[in-house]
Design a protein that fits this description.
heterodimer; A: Serine Threonine Protein Phosphatase 5, Tetratricopeptide repeat; 14 helices; B: about 10% helix; Plug_dom_sf (chain B); transport (chain B); CarboxyPept-like_regulatory (chain B); cell outer membrane (chain B)
């Protein structure tokens, strides 16, 4: 008899234990699986995402420079490169063109900025001023990415045709299940311009490092966009707004001309730094500067020897403008705005 | 007088009592006929009479007529119940008790980690490996000893240094979710299995189907391996000692086919004559390009700094040199392993204990590598009262490893744009001087810097010995307490608590004289008008990593084992709940300017970017490793397992489990996942119609159906980001984060549904036995990377896109025979598995992805097996120029670019790279005390892709293959070779086409003699005590007996095949 009672009691006990275990489970199972993971919920998270320069600043598509006449490559050097690069250099359309980083990396930046917008819309704790800056930065990087993509994959902006020329898929949400069709060139550039404009209002004038966009950067980027669109007066106005904030110039005489890397990464002229590590065809040991481009620079620049190495074989090697083979082809710098 | 009458009455009654009772007497012994003292013998339940056996094992107990059963209990032995219904009561009853270890030795009981089930009651598919089988191969790692011992267990060692085990094929598409769960006694083991003392292992049970494994729930989708440790032993005091020594042949470096030095030099001369090196040799970037001695001499000769005669003499000498000879002589040696183990056990019926200590020491195959393992294991079983049992275990494991991280080994790459080293490199010359080998930089440039303010920048491989050392130490504690309380004899409550904790520390110390330190110091040296400044200070560089793990598990179970109505019905049930938590912490850091003796270091500036010397590496920050990480895994589970047997013939079982875990980012309700199984078993040998057939001893049929899972993906409604520590390659030092996954609310755990049908038989008194099992599995909701539209920002996401279907057979046949003193036992296994992808919604790339490294990775494709082997169609060589030819649009084609990007439908599909049919043959013959055994394993039905010569890589990166010697050289060669002609300039697409064509696919069928073991057992009486000795000699990796591969490569290994191991040893029991 006493066994049955015991049995029942222990059954009840087991259930009590189980249910209490179950309910305390909630807390037990809430512990994060890894200290490195988080949900994007705080300003610190969003700030960290925008500071991830390996993804936000390093997306610049190398395709923009590889097929241009700013550089040339000697035949035996070209033949040693993978087939895909050879086809890019000679502008051939082929299924072997496997280089897709120029398409993927800018879209990754666009996705990150969409995640940031959605996090801000869900509600983030913090001062409004800081939230504004984050929003402004996200708008800047998104528009910058779309600008790069538009130059590569769409027809040039032309007021007469751009409303039916095919543009880019304009992603504005991060959900990967949503499908987007290509918009028109007009819509694409409209988005770019409006994003930069909003950014000029939201961004601060001075920033800790040129990897973070500033007001001057937004104006500079806006100027470049107008230049591409052919709206020269708007471009001039935007450029002047940018230079009004930051217009430092380098004195080439101060630089060490004999070094292989005379410019530092963040030298005074840099307003915003974007770069690439793709497109190894452009590395200094391979790409050479054609004579006519060389001739277009004025003598003083040339004498300073800061840009190029003159070689006995009468070819010109490009000195890397910054560290480790990174090409700052997207530097919004004061110098460029003066031409 | 009155006293006499009373006394007479009493006597009468006692005699009357006696008439209705009888005495039962007998003797209790162990399996070796040694008497066991102190056995508790009871009749009629715990309230009945109890007697103890004496020191001769004899007992004497009164038994009422109606009693049928007598029970024998002793803490060191399995409980035994003897039926005395038909026992004549004036004869001695001889009872033999088996120790709990021995029970498992005969594999009469299977242990799942939750309960022990007698073999005649199981419905699921279990395989047991006994202690005798485990001693056949000498190894420091218990997992090595299981290879080839049971059907259905497959070992994949194709990738160098890695071991993948699978049970009945693959059930997932994610490489990270493969592999069976490994359990030690009752809980999964969180430490390193190589640290466990193999002598502590009594037996191993493999759980192969859903009914067996579903009690382990969401981690058992790939099967479970349960390692059962030895338990405290019998009443007598016992000592067990063993020692063995193993020596391994030197690493078979020359078994990897490489281009000969002579051919390589011919290629270099050809390239030189064609001006291939001219641009690079004279460019300003030549400082960072490595050139070989032959090229240097050719240029020197052209510039008239070296005479023709000297040039040809030197080259002729270099043709005969193979760097692997010197590597083996100076940097490699014979690996040796020593193992010592001592175990002591004893106790009485209240308390039994076992203590074991073991030491393993390995001197590795590369000079400077060594491993030492120490294991101390203390176990105790205490019978606190009739109903209360307590058992405790404390295991302490320590591992200390040292390895020499000299950059020079058989895989060495000199950098500077090259792959492997040129084959005629020399490490030491005839005068015994250690020679320089170019590394990272152009060595002629390095020579120009000698004698300046920089440290010596040369790399001398033989001087680097002991300058780059990795010291790793690891301590692991495993403590467990089991409490068993018997509410009634058939209802027991268990409480188990397990604590595991470990600390690991790794140190990578590079002395200042090492190349790495000198190189780093030199790179950051600033030389200007102010003098010489060392940004990286002089001294050693010490990189430390720490790991701490702590895990606790607690489990409560209720066990019910009751027979009703005289054995007509029996129920076995176990139910309970379990909580487990494990935390892992890691911390890494590096210090510079380190003095290993004083243990002091210097401060460095990690923040600023400095120009490197001569711009060799641009502007950079000092590279460092710094970081912290904590990962936590928590599980909550509820489980139940019940089996009902009717008439001891028919069994039905059911098992269910619900798991939840803390994988991140989701609602608690979605974290639970139920898994279940059901099974039936029929013991035909107990049926009346078979009881008459004397030659059938056992015949059972089983059928099971169930689900187990693979935890891996959890649904998320928000994106997750992960923080990354700053690295010296970054431009800024702000905290940074990246998006690691986008919201994916439809993610689920993987599910494996398995059906198992089995028939096992035992005939002619075990002269012939075996089993046939058929299984059918379907794995659904398999997680896999799924390519998506890259405009979404990620190029792929993990989704439940896959379905795998598999089926197969596990066959086992064993025979025993004896003629006089000679006994033979043979066991043959054959397992057949076919896993085919039924649904795969991921992106299918063009053929180029699948023909590269064919058969080496999972690569799911619809209607194809996993590890698919594809190749491009090959139409021989062009007779005029030796170009390889393919087939496109119905005709022979040399459009290599198009062929590599063609659709997958046009490729040739062979099958799978993982052997679908595999098995082994175990044979042992013994004559008196001498016994010889060997293990042969075989694999059939798979294919592999062999490497070959690639001219583009040969010219650019020095990657050479011996197929070069068989290349097409003149018209007519195409009749007996498929290797294309060398083309200059090289075309890497042409190389790729040939490398990925049918010409390089071979069958992987093989038969291998795995182990041979000769042992001799003898007993001696010394000083009244009996000593049992066992000496043995064994060889492992004996030989590859046969392979279908035409090139003679070993299909089981992508790189260096394993060397033969010779062992000998002795063990002693007393």
């Amino acid at each position: 008899m006493k066994f049955i009672c015991f049995f029942r009691c222990s059954r009840v006990l087991l259930w009590i234990v189980c249910t209490s275990v179950f309910f305390s489970c909630t807390e037990f199972l809430e512990k994060k699986a890894s200290s490195a993971f988080a949900l994007p919920e705080t300003l610190k998270d969003l700030r960290a995402m925008l500071d991830n320069e390996a993804q936000i600043n390093m997306f610049a598509p190398s395709l923009l420079e590889m097929g241009t006449d700013d550089i040339y490559v000697r035949p035996e050097v070209l033949k040693a490169r993978p087939q895909a690069e050879q086809l890019i250099y000679s502008w051939q359309q082929s299924i072997l063109r496997s280089e897709i980083a120029s398409w993927n990396l800018p879209y990754r930046v666009i996705m990150m900025s969409n995640v940031i917008f959605e996090a801000l819309d869900r509600g983030v704790e913090g001062r409004d001023a800081e939230k504004n800056i984050i929003r402004g930065e996200a708008l800047f990087v998104r528009a910058y990415a779309y600008l790069a993509l538009a130059q590569l994959y769409c027809n040039t902006y032309d007021e007469t045709t751009s409303s039916h020329d095919l543009g880019l898929p304009l992603r504005v949400v991060s959900d990967f299940n949503t499908i987007y069709a290509r918009s028109s060139v007009q819509e694409t550039y409209d988005l770019i311009v409006s994003d930069f404009k909003t950014a000029t209002e939201a961004l601060p004038e001075s920033v800790a490092l040129p990897t973070r966009p500033s007001k001057a950067a937004a104006y500079g980027a806006l100027a470049r966009t107008y230049l591409i669109m052919g709206r020269y007066d708007d471009a001039k106005n935007a450029a002047e707004s940018a230079l009004a904030i930051k217009n430092d110039l380098l004195d080439y005489n101060d630089l060490d001309a004999s070094s292989n890397f005379p410019f530092g990464v963040f030298h005074d002229e840099v307003i915003y730094n974007a770069y690439t590590t793709q497109g190894l065809l452009l590395v200094a040991s391979r790409a050479l500067i054609p004579d006519d481009l060389y001739a277009s620079y004025d003598e003083k620049t040339v004498e300073s020897n800061c840009f190029l190495i003159n070689q006995r074989m009468a070819t010109l090697f490009l000195k890397e403008i910054t560290a480790e083979g990174l090409l700052p082809i997207f530097q919004v710098s004061a110098r460029m705005n003066y031409t | 007088m009155k006293l006499k009458i009373i006394f007479g009455f009493l006597l009468f009654f006692s005699v009357a009592d006696v008439i209705a009772q009888r005495y039962l007497k007998g003797i209790v012994t162990d399996i070796e006929h040694e008497p066991i003292e102190g056995v508790r013998i009871t009749v009629g339940g715990p309230e009945g009479e109890v007697v103890m056996s004496d020191k001769d094992g004899r007992f004497n107990i009164t038994v009422a007529d109606k009693e049928m059963e007598v029970h024998f209990f002793h803490v060191g032995y399995a409980d035994k119940m003897e039926s005395i219904a038909s026992h004549p009561f004036n004869e001695d009853l001889h009872v033999m008790l088996l120790t709990k270890n021995q029970e498992i030795e005969e594999v009469e009981v299977v242990s799942t980690g939750y309960q022990q089930i007698p073999k005649e009651r199981v419905t699921g598919s279990f395989e047991g490996i006994s202690n005798a089988d485990l001693t056949k191969r000498v190894s420091a790692n218990i997992l090595d000893k299981l290879e080839g011992q049971v059907p259905g267990l497959q070992y994949d060692r194709r990738r160098t240094g890695s071991l993948d085990i699978n049970v009945r094929g693959i059930n997932t598409m994610s490489e990270g979710l493969m592999g069976p769960l490994i359990v030690v006694d009752n809980f999964p083991f969180e430490g390193n299995l190589q640290d466990i003392n193999p002598n502590d292992v009594a037996s191993v049970t493999i759980l192969k189907d859903a009914a067996a494994a579903s009690i382990w729930g969401a981690r058992a989708g790939n099967g479970v391996i349960v390692i059962n440790l030895k338990k405290p032993m019998e009443g007598r005091f016992n000592i067990d000692f063993s020692a063995n020594y193993t020596v391994v042949e030197k690493a078979r470096l020359k078994d990897v086919p490489r281009i000969s030095s002579s051919d390589f030099i011919d290629v270099e001369r050809m390239l030189f004559e064609n001006g291939y090196f001219d641009a690079a040799y004279n460019s300003p970037y030549a400082k960072l390009t490595v050139f070989s001695p032959v090229i240097d001499m050719l240029f020197a000769n052209r510039n008239e700094a070296l005479s023709d005669v000297a040039l040809e003499e030197n080259i002729a000498r270099l043709r005969n040199i193979d760097v692997r000879d010197q590597l083996q002589k100076y940097l490699y040696r014979n690996e040796t392993l020593q193992q010592y183990a001592l175990a002591v056990s004893g106790g009485n019926n209240i308390n039994a204990y076992r203590m074991s200590v073991s030491y393993n020491g390995t001197e590795g195959t590369k000079i400077g590598d060594s491993d030492q393992n120490l294991s101390i294991n203390l176990q105790n079983e205490l019978k606190i009262s009739n109903k209360f049992d307590l058992s405790a275990r404390l295991m302490f494991l320590q591992h200390i490893g040292k390895s020499d991280a000299n950059p020079m080994d058989y895989n060495f790459s000199p950098g500077g744009g090259r792959g492997p080293l040129y084959p005629y490199a020399e490490l030491k010359n005839e005068n015994g001087e250690n020679l320089v080998v170019p590394y990272v930089y152009n060595h002629q440039y390095i020579e120009t810097l000698a004698g300046g303010e920089l440290l010596d920048w040369r790399f001398v491989p033989l001087d680097e010995v002991s300058l780059n050392t990795i010291n790793a130490s690891r301590q692991h504690i495993d403590a467990q307490i089991n409490l068993n309380y018997a509410l009634t004899p058939w209802l027991k409550i268990d409480g188990l608590y397990n604590y595991q904790g470990s600390r690991a520390e790794d140190q990578f110390l590079r002395q200042q004289e090492s190349f790495y330190a000198r190189d780093l110091i030199n790179r950051f040296t600033q030389i200007n008008e102010e003098g010489v400044q060392h940004i990286v200070p002089l001294g050693a560089i010490n990189q430390m990593g720490n790991q701490r793990m702590q895990g606790q598990k607690i489990r409560g179970t209720l066990r019910l084992n009751k027979d009703f109505l005289n054995g007509e019905h029996s129920i076995n049930m176990v139910t309970g709940a379990e909580l487990s938590a494990m935390t892992l912490n890691t911390a890494d850091y590096t210090v510079f300017g380190y003095d290993p003796l004083l243990m002091t270091n210097q401060q460095v500036d990690l923040r600023n970017i400095y120009p490197t010397f001569d711009g060799l590496a641009g502007n950079a920050r000092i590279p460092t490793t710094e970081g912290f990480l904590e990962t936590t895994r928590r599980y909550v589970s509820l489980f139940a397992n019940a089996a009902y047997t009717w008439r001891q013939k028919y069994t039905a079982s059911f098992s269910a489990r619900r798991d939840a875990s803390n994988l991140f980012g989701v609602n608690i309700n979605d974290k639970w996942n139920p898994l279940w199984s059901a099974g039936l078993a029929w013991s035909l040998d107990r049926e009346d119609f078979l009881k008459e057939v004397s030659w059938v001893d056992g015949l059972r049929m089983r059928a099971t159906y169930g689900h187990s899972g693979n935890s891996g993906g959890v649904a998320t409604s928000l994106p997750t980001i992960s923080y990354v520590s700053g690295s010296s390659a970054n431009l800024t030092s702000f905290p940074r984060a990246m998006v690691s996954s986008l919201p994916n609310p439809y993610l689920k755990w993987e599910d494996v549904r398995m059906i198992n049908l089995a028939l096992s038989f035992d005939i002619f008194k075990r002269a012939l036995s075996g089993s046939v099992e058929y299984f059918n599995k379907k794995s659904t909701d398999l997680l896999s990377q799924d390519n998506i539209d890259p405009t979404a920002g990620l190029s792929s996401v993990r989704r439940n896109v896959g379905v795998l279907r598999g089926s197969g057979w596990d066959l086992k046949l064993a025979g025993r025979a004896s003629i006089g003193n000679v006994q033979s036992s043979t066991t043959v296994f054959l397992s057949m598995v076919k896993d085919v992808v039924k649904e795969y919604r991921g992106n299918i790339s063009n053929v180029g992805t699948y023909v590269a490294n064919a058969g080496g990775s999972l690569r799911p494709l619809p209607d194809r097996q996993l590890y698919p082997v594809f190749a491009l169609r090959f139409e021989g060589l062009d007779g005029e120029n030796g170009d390889p030819q393919g087939w496109r649009n119905g005709e022979v084609s040399k459009e290599y670019q198009q062929l590599l990007r063609d659709s997958l439908q046009h490729a040739v599909y062979y099958g799978t790279g993982l052997p679908p049919r595999h098995g082994s043959l175990k044979q042992s013959i013994s004559w008196k005390d001498l016994s010889l055994s060997f293990l042969i394993s075989y694999k059939f039905g798979h294919y592999f892709q062999k490497p070959t010569v690639r001219y583009h890589a040969l010219f650019n990166s020095w990657l050479g293959h011996s197929d070069f010697a068989h290349r097409w050289q003149k018209p007519g060669d195409e009749n007996f070779t498929t290797v294309p002609s060398m083309s200059y300039p090289a075309n890497n697409i042409r190389d790729d086409f040939y490398a990925y064509s049918e010409a390089n696919i071979e069958k992987g069928d093989l038969i291998r003699l795995q182990d041979v073991n000769l042992s001799y057992r003898f007993m001696r009486s010394i000083g009244g005590k009996k000593y049992t000795f066992n000496v043995f000699g064994a060889v492992n990796n004996v030989a590859l007996l046969w392979t279908a591969s035409e090139s003679g490569l070993d299909p089981d290994y992508f790189n260096i095949p394993p060397s033969r191991r010779y062992s000998m040893g002795i063990s002693c029991k007393f």
